[in-house]
Amino acid sequence: MGKVRPAYIKRIGRALMEQYPDRFSDDFEHNKRVVGQLVEGVSKRVRNRIAGYITSQIKRLKEARVRKV
User: Fold this and answer.
1) Is residue 1 part of a domain?
2) What tens digit of pLDDT does each residue of 16-25 get?
3) Total domain count, the chain
4) What CATH number is associated with residue 28?
5) Whole-prediction pTM value?
6) Nearest to 49 by CA among 9, 16, 8
């Protein structure tokens, strides 16, 4: 089984993806920098968790689009 992410990580990640959909990609390092710029006052660990969640969601969306075609 995979690791479970806390609800606050998912909530922040979803909010960022809704507000700034064009700023994120499937590259974790890029997303980490973007999250660091957008969210102030979070620890490095929380920033990385949010970036990881966003990265996984972007990859899932891309894969779902490919399967539909």
Assistant:
1) no
2) 999 999 999 9
3) 1
4) 1.10.60.20
5) 0.89
6) 9
